[in-house]
Amino acid sequence: MFGKAVSYDLIWDSAACEGVHESQRWIVVAMQKYGHELVTMLWRILGNEQDVCDAYQTVFLHLAHLEDGQRPRWVKAYLFRTASNTAVSMLRQRLVERKSLSGMLQAGEELHAVDRDFDTRHLAESLRRHVAQLPDHLRNVIMLRDLGELSYREVARIMGISSGTARVYRCKAVQLLAIWMNKEEDK
Amino acid sequence: MRLLAHKEKTNSCESKSAPSRCGRIRRRLLDCANHRLGPDAPWVQRHVASCPRCQKRLAALTKVNLALSAIKSQPHQLDLLMRANSAAVKMLSHALRREAQDRRLEEARPEPCLMERCLGRRYAIANVAACLAILFLTKAGIFSSLDKARAQGQEVMKNYYTSQVGEDLAREVFEP
User: In this predicted complex, what is the ipTM?
Assistant: First the structure.
């Protein structure tokens, strides 16, 4: 349920919509329909509002510039897949940037090492970092199921697998994340 | 009559209440399985209490679930959706405007370099090169040398046949 995330009803600015070409109106409709879920998923993956806005734009630009301006057969699937891929790319880029700064951050991290276990923000960041490193199929299931809150049936349909396989993938992903987070803690 | 009534009852159950009943039973089975086989089951708890490895694993799994819950419960700004939407809509119209202006760029083709232009006439160039090579080889006497080598080879073969099968037969074979 998206109840936990703070919801905000979109005030559709008619002036903004008028600027959109007739052929792209269906994109605005898709935005209206799936925008909230997408923003929530992107927020959960990225945890940064500016990045969420950037990723959201990228997703809809991809949709608008699909081959010959065609509409995908299942818009929701296309949007969620593109969103998760875009978010992961951004997350990885952020990881690379962070690695380059790791030397500078190391001293600061040591000071806060004691509070780590109780720091939910750190825990969330750690999970995001590890999710970005998961194999594609496992990562997609975790993102769509846990962060996008889609049903297993929808996840399975988006990924072209069975619901059972999606469940197995999620289980494997959680196990892998647990191992990695444990290793990190040991270090 | 009794059978018919039973059948009707079964059919009505299958058609209307079956999905909800199935769902209920499935949920109960799942709860039961979780209770008996899940991490909260008494025998699992007893084992975990005495096994440090399992304690560590269970703690790690709990940590992942905790992290997922933490991510889900982190609130964002109230106007995030609105900001994202308005930025995306602006970008759409902007992209459209740019598309109209830059259509010429889409149609433009890159100017080929000298090498690429020559590639278009590669067959003609290859033919000319082949002719030049033949001329050069003729001039250099390669072909006459080949004729000489062939004549010498025939001579050797004729001598061999003469020694093996006799002069008459060798003459028949090698002299037309």
Answer: 0.76
Q: Chain B: give the shortest CA distance to residue A145, in Å.
A: 11
Name the residue range of residue B15's domain.
Answer: 2-71
Q: Is B156 within a domain?
A: yes
CA A148 to chain centre: 7
Does the structure show a pLDDT above 60 at B106? no
Contacts of B93 in chain A (CB under 8 A): 16, 19-21
Are B81 and A174 a contacting pair at CB < 8 A? Answer: no
Domain boundary among B71, B97, B116: B71
Domain region containing A23: 14-186
Return the residue in B54, B69, B92 with the most chain A beta carbons within 10 A, the one to mutate for interface testing: B92
Tell me the whole-structure pTM to 2 decimals: 0.61
Q: Do B85 and A31 touch (CB under 8 A)?
A: yes
From the DSSP assignment, how many helices (H) and strands (E) are in chain B? 10, 0
Question: With 0-12 CB in 10 A as exposed, 13-18 as middle and 19+ as buried, what is B99?
Answer: middle
